[in-house]
Amino acid sequence: MTPQEVLAELTALQAGDVPTHGGSTMAYVYDSGRVGIDHLAAAAQAAFQWTNALDPTAFPSVARIEDDLVGAAADLLGGGPATVGTVTSGGTESCLLAVLAARERWRARGGTGRPRLVLPVTAHAAFRKAAHLFDLEVVDVAVDPVTCRALPSAVAEALDARAALVVVSAPSYPHGVLDPVGEVAALAAAAGVPCHVDACIGGWVLPFLDDVPEPFDLSVPGVTSLSVDLHKYGYAPKGVSVLLTAEPELRQGHWFSTAGWPGYPVVNPTLAGTRPAGPMAAAWAVHRWLGRDGYAELARATRAATVALAEGAAAIPGLRVVGTPVATLVAIAQDGPDGVDVLHLADEATARGWLLQPQPPFAQPGGADLPATLHLTVTGATAVRVDALLADLADAACAAAALPPPVADPGLVAAAATIDPAALTVAEVDALLELAGVGGGTLPERMAPVHALVAALPRPVAERLLAGVLDLVYRPRRESAVSG
């Protein structure tokens, strides 16, 4: 194939993707709406696409880029003279490393047994992944069912001798609300437990706003680490995040070094060995161009659009906004028993060209359940389209209200209650997915029944089937079969 043919084929592959620009995809992607950012980021990324950030002594430019990004994050987010940090591949890796460092600190201080990770149920799923990988026990902490904020009293009950880390969100991804960082961090400090602030989605927005209700960053006593993503509201390409630690000793807990083999001595500050420098260079370039003034302008415009969106959505009959959004995220729920089902609403919004992210209902431990919601991430590109979005949302709500509530097949739910998910083979999962209407890895046009089924199944079974869907999607195509 010629280079032109290869690129044409690559472009054709994207035909079924949701759009990454234009503001209609309100999850997964972050579009500033400024074309110049794309050009600058692409040029910077191309200039460093072959550079290996594994060894900054061989590529000192990488060290300079990383130090500049960490320094900018520390200046913006309350870092002190001892604050250090690490550039990672994304928010998940930043969260993983924060948990790993806390576990190592807990062990070094004589912790015995299995360490615990204290998580409000609204904390990002990345922390559950960290607990799985690094063998910590998750202690679920209920949140207030109305405000969806972490309950300091519930956190306090979980801060025992096995607690290695407590997490708060600024804001939480599901509902866009700010946890009581100061109260929780003070409780953690009194118990001798580190406190991590997950500001992956809000850390590059909140510092530029005037209406943030309370401090949330490293300036808060008791906060020991903080994560912030530059590929979100730093408007850099995927994937770049920064993990800040209040003091250098904590950072050492997630570094790995070895001279125990006959090859070159290895020191890795992140989970990866080879680290792509292209996204880091792109983030550096975008930051240098926009500067604080540019970010402040984008953040304030996006925040104003978010407030207008929340007010407009709350005025649509049958819908309500969950909690008090503090940044650029909005969660919409059904208002009352006769309100609009948000799972249907997601499908109707999709039919009108918008990707809004459905979130199933959640049963809290010992607390009131959280309702199903529709998550909307507002970006710079969406800010100029709020009126159009509200008009489509109102139309979609009328259509959704006319549909019967999505109900999971009772026979399938009853059968699932008897299943040991750990014992299921791949073939058995494939068969169950066929019964659920998602066989072959092809999702149905309307997803409300699938989401209703996920919500009705026992959580371990649902998780096994969800993994099965991805397993069907990632089935390799062999060139020999394609070519015939």
Automatic annotation (TrEMBL):
<protein>
    <submittedName>
        <fullName>Glutamate or tyrosine decarboxylase</fullName>
    </submittedName>
</protein>
<dbReference type="InterPro" id="IPR002129">
    <property type="entry name" value="PyrdxlP-dep_de-COase"/>
</dbReference>
<keyword id="KW-0663">Pyridoxal phosphate</keyword>
<dbReference type="GO" id="GO:0030170">
    <property type="term" value="F:pyridoxal phosphate binding"/>
</dbReference>
<dbReference type="InterPro" id="IPR050477">
    <property type="entry name" value="GrpII_AminoAcid_Decarb"/>
</dbReference>
<dbReference type="InterPro" id="IPR015424">
    <property type="entry name" value="PyrdxlP-dep_Trfase"/>
</dbReference>
<dbReference type="GO" id="GO:0019752">
    <property type="term" value="P:carboxylic acid metabolic process"/>
</dbReference>
<dbReference type="InterPro" id="IPR015422">
    <property type="entry name" value="PyrdxlP-dep_Trfase_small"/>
</dbReference>
<feature type="modified residue" description="N6-(pyridoxal phosphate)lysine">
    <location>
        <position position="232"/>
    </location>
</feature>
<dbReference type="GO" id="GO:0004058">
    <property type="term" value="F:aromatic-L-amino-acid decarboxylase activity"/>
</dbReference>
<dbReference type="InterPro" id="IPR015421">
    <property type="entry name" value="PyrdxlP-dep_Trfase_major"/>
</dbReference>
<comment type="similarity">
    <text>Belongs to the group II decarboxylase family. Sphingosine-1-phosphate lyase subfamily.</text>
</comment>
<keyword id="KW-0456">Lyase</keyword>
<dbReference type="Pfam" id="PF00282">
    <property type="entry name" value="Pyridoxal_deC"/>
</dbReference>
